[in-house]
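How it folds:
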Amino acid sequence: MGDRPQLAGKSQVDAGWWEELDAPSTDVVHDASGRVLGVISYAVRPSDGTGLLLWLHCREDQAIASALITHAVRELGDRMILGFEFASALTLGLEGLPVGHRPETRQALERAGFSGRNLWRYMRSPLPIAGLPHTASYTVSECEEPPGKQLEIRSDNGELMAEATIGRPVAGVGVLWWISVTPAHRGRGLGPTLMGSCLDLLAGLGASEVILFVDDDAPADDVERSRAAANLMYDRAGLVEVDRLWSFSRRP
């Protein structure tokens, strides 16, 4: 099993962060019959000595979650520990713990002294979505991290107006990684138009649903980082918030 990416400590998403880690430890708790009850993976980042809880599965049994977290904390020792800080190979880029669907894991982390930080909206929709605008005036190129395709809309003189990245569908699920419209071209409907084209392309690649993550933690007065317009665009398109994604930290 050690050659599997999630056990070997490799991931196509956030690959650079994984490369900074020592080889992860992956430990299993099982019952007397050998049935697996839970698994946790953790590692140390040598550059700053930080420990990381990389992923944990426990069928949402809080006692199992607590036992696994306590074990990992003990093994990592007296150091700063971060939990669910970046995406693993077990996900399509889901960075953080979906706390609404993982309440027992969240409570076990908090009981072990971890503090949570609300970072992302996690949204989804079946495909296709009717009624979205589209454009044929874009170019497509391959990108490696995240693995997928880059779409660009440029003006007649070659100036970049808007861009987006989508992930290659896995088991019918495609990822809309991001959409960006340059400041000079905002307010012209390029965002919804490009999103409609992205979702058309995903459906053409075999996706029957799309997921996306919105980093929704910008301060209210930070205009540059604000995701208000993006959130409004996704809500109007009919995407539904599935959960909130949190990361966690525990001081020595």
